[in-house]
Input
Amino acid sequence: MDELERRKYEELARINKALSHPARLFIVHKLAEQEYCVKELTEMIGSDISTVSKHLAILKNAGIISDEKRGNCVYYTLLCPCVLSMFGCLTNVIESNKEQMNEL
Amino acid sequence: MDELERRKYEELARINKALSHPARLFIVHKLAEQEYCVKELTEMIGSDISTVSKHLAILKNAGIISDEKRGNCVYYTLLCPCVLSMFGCLTNVIESNKEQMNEL
DNA sequence: ACAGTATTTGGCTATTTTGCCAAATAGGCA
DNA sequence: TGCCTATTTGGCAAAATAGCCAAATACTGT
Output
């Protein structure tokens, strides 16, 4: 693996790492339907608002969502809907795992 | 978010976490072409063989790859090729980010 | 300017992840 | 059996991540 390839995989991993936390996956899933502000997402998730804000910052930093301040609130939007296809694949893996469990 | 939903996102995150390390993404990408044994992958990656072995164990535990012992070696295979579609999406995000950088 | 709401940031601790080394395990072959 | 190669496991220290609280910031409306 040369230096260029190494950097490529580090970049891919950086993006995917942003998507490897339950709360952040939930956020992405929700934002796929419509935009939400921090407070709304916080109420759905049920942890501290500062925690949710940090999750949102991670997703934003990865370029997966964007924010827009309107009035008193900051609204977040999903930038790459293709991220949803990843849910399909992950669900696939989980289903396969279950099947294999049953075969034992 | 009720208990069932919470568990669902935890499961999704668990799988995706297995895919959020550069070496593990590299491994998946390589195994998409053909099977490889631990030693071969170790030579490509360039870290300690025990480290690579642990990466493989994580991927196997997530149900993404499977192993088969033949003779002296353990060969690993990609189980869910759909994982490759995730690369496409991640690359997409990276490209979008670059474009946005250029717009500044 | 002041009070109230929404959000972010800093700081701290607890937990998890990473990666190396050394040791244990397993199979092949003389 | 004994040696060699391939792989996994245990243990450890460094680094990264998570989540809470408190404080800072930003904007609204009075």
